[in-house]
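Write out this protein's structure.
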Amino acid sequence: MTSTDAKSVVLAYLKAIDERDAEAIGATLWEDAEFRIPGEHALAGTWVGMDEILNKFMLPLMELFSTEVPYTIEISQVVAEGDTVVLDCVARAASRSGLPYEANIVSVFTLQDGRIKAMREFFDTQYFVRTLFGND
């Protein structure tokens, strides 16, 4: 897989998230994909497989945000080399309680045969917990 192809897959994944298109998200992931999210909060951990990623990570994550304010991802930089894509972005939204949410996130994707095999995210988990769970 070329770096350009790998980058295109990650951008398609982000578009599918933006459009809340579960079928399109699934088309970019391997059935046994693995997502690792850092921290000590309800959504921290390693999620393996489509069912866990969608139902135990993505859907519960979206429940933390207001439905009145769109969840947007502003891409700052995408670097791709071979089957690895690094995404630097800012996620913006509002919490269920209306607090503004703006998180700088770096995600590292590993692709295999044109689909996402693994993803690791790096972000300020204290800010995440304080803003979305109301904890310090």
